[in-house]
Structure formats: structure tokens, C-alpha cells
Amino acid sequence: MSHKAWMKTVPTENCDVLMTFPDTTDDHTLLWLLNHIRLGIPELIVQVRHHKHTRVYAFFVTATYESLLRGADEIGLRKPVKAEFGGGMRSFSCEEDYIYENIENELYFFTSQERQNIIRYWLENLRAKQGESLHNIHFLEGQPIIPELAARGVIQQVFPLHEQRILKRLMKSWVQAVCEAQPLDEICDYFGVKIAMYFAWLGFYTSAMVYPAVFGSILYTFTESDQTSQDICCVVFAIFNVIWATLFLEEWKRRGAEFAYKWGTLDTPAESIEEPRPQFRGIKRISPVTSAEEFYYPPWKRLLFQCLVSLPICLACLSIVFLLMLGCFQLQEFVLSIQELPRIIRFLPKIVLAVIVTACDELYKKIAYWLNDMGAW
């Protein structure tokens, strides 16, 4: 540790989110970010650790149960309500915390995924004040600090930690299980509703594919070799697929609605499930709809940027691609017109086109990210 003796190396048993830094990170950067997190998000508990072999520094981030309850209220986390208060799912409220199931049990009220979502929400919405800077990075007012530092490479990774106890249980009941139903409720509790819904659909789809597979095999077995029998079987199999696809979609609607009701997302608008975009910048104001503080960016400014910047740049990129493609085609015709050239040279225009496509793809990806960040504030 030597000159970095201010960093404590006490064991950290409770950690929900880990933030790592490159081994070249200096003390000023660590102290600057640590100070901003502790002042901007006082709900978080941050411990600084240093790995003696990799020489990498990391922030071990967690929060107290009371702070997580306030965070659940802030993001509108939906939790099950006790039967005597009506049951079902409802957005968490600290004022009525007594109505929620397991509220008295700190260990089981929040799943690890819910804890990590609350902490990640706080971290991604830590925003800079006017004129703040770190070395050569100058933040705009209201700009999210941690996503910007991660994009600049100052922060190496920000990721949630797994719970080995739950992973081992899932390994036995899910990964290693043969001919058993998926533990969808456990998957939902650990990975979240989106992941659980995906595997629910995947399992349902896999099971539903048995019917066309069996019916198609039977048709193939009993089909005669003449063309008429094959045509009839194709028509029959096509009709079967149409009926099967219709029944599959209708049944999945019912099954998906059951899961959504069970997991508390049936009557939840999509915008409340998705977290606010942390890169959004604007002026702070009180929302006329929710009366909560929010960032607001005038629509006319966004439209002006799209018309004067986004559209011309997109048209210029399309024109460049079109001209480069025509140039490669002309080069191809020129090369093919010369019979004396070696055979390998005839592939040169195609190689040039492949290199151009790859280079343009990387360039246009960066342009697209920049336009998205600038024009969709």
C-alpha cells in the first residue's frame, strides 16, 4: 500500500456492485470520484480495495436496508402486498411500507437483482455540476459522471456481483437438471423479469416445436415417392403450420400474461420498467405530470439539431458509401478488361471493397453514437 495508506483493506462481506479501475489510475482520480459518490449519493457505502497481484483498485459498493427502501420508493419498484391489504403487486412506498410482504425481513425483502438495480440507478444518475472537470475531462452541467468516465476508460468496469449460494442452487435445479421444468420463479428473483420471461418463452417455444416435428416426420415417412403425393403432403403440412402458428401465438399470449401478472409487470407501462437514460442532459425542472424533479430538453432544439446536423451528416455518409461502391465497381471493370494481369490481382477490387466496408462500419458506428447522444437529449 505504501503511499496509499489512506485506503483501508478491511474485508468486505457485503458488496452488491463492483467498480474497477486500470492499474495506472492515480490517487487524485480515485479521491475525486470517491468524494463525489459519497457527497452525491450519501445512501451508498463505498469501500476501496486494492488487489496486490493485479495492482487494480476497486470500489466495493453497497447500501443499508433503510437506504434501499428509499431507493425502491424512488424508482417505483413493484413489490407484493400482504393479503390483508388487498394482495397483488404495487409500487413500493416508504409511507406505507407495512403493507408489503417480508418488509420485516431485511435478508429476503429485496432480491440481489433488485438491490443491484437500485444501486446502479443511483450510480448512473450521479451528475456533474457546472464547470466540474477531472484532468482533461470537462463535464457539462447535468452530465452523468460514471457513464462518461467509463466511456473514457477512467473506470474499467462497473458490474454486479453474483451470489455463489444462489448460483449453485440454480446450477443443480436448472443447468444440470434433465427433463425437469425450469425454475422460472428462481430465475426471475435472481436475474430479473426480462431474463426470466426470455427463458419462459424459449422453453415454451421449444416444447411447442415438438408438434410440427412429429407431424412432419409422420408425413415424410408415409409420403409416396411420386410428385403428386409429395405436393399433397406439402400442402397438408403448410396448412398444419398455419394452424399451429396461430395456436402457438394465442397460447403464448395467455402464458405470457400469466407470468407478467405473477411477476408484477402486467399492468406496468413499459417506460416505468425501463430505467431513465443516464446520458440524457437538459435543464432541471419539476415535471408537470409527476411533480418530481426531472431533466428537460426543449423538443424544438432536438428537432433543430436533427434537421441541421443529423440529416446532413447521414446524407453525406450515404453519398460517400455510394461513391466508394461505384469506384470499386469501376476498378473491377478496369481490372477485368486487362487480360495480362495475374489472376490474384483480379480479386484486388473485392478486397478493397471489403476493407472499405469494415472501415466505414467502424467510423459510422462512432458517428451514430455521437448523433444519438447529441440529438436525443
From TrEMBL:
TM annotation in the entry: 198-220, 232-249, 303-326
GO molecular function: chloride channel activity
Residues covered by the Anoctamin transmembrane domain: 187-374
Membrane topology field: Multi-pass membrane protein
Subcellular location: Membrane
Gene Ontology cellular-component terms listed: plasma membrane
InterPro entries: Anoctamin (IPR007632), Anoctamin_TM (IPR049452)
Pfam families: Anoctamin
Key words, A-Z: Membrane, Transmembrane, Transmembrane helix
Major subcellular location class: membrane
Keyword presence, Transmembrane helix: yes
Family to which this protein belongs: Belongs to the anoctamin family.
Name of this chain's protein: Anoctamin
Gene this protein is translated from: Ano8_1
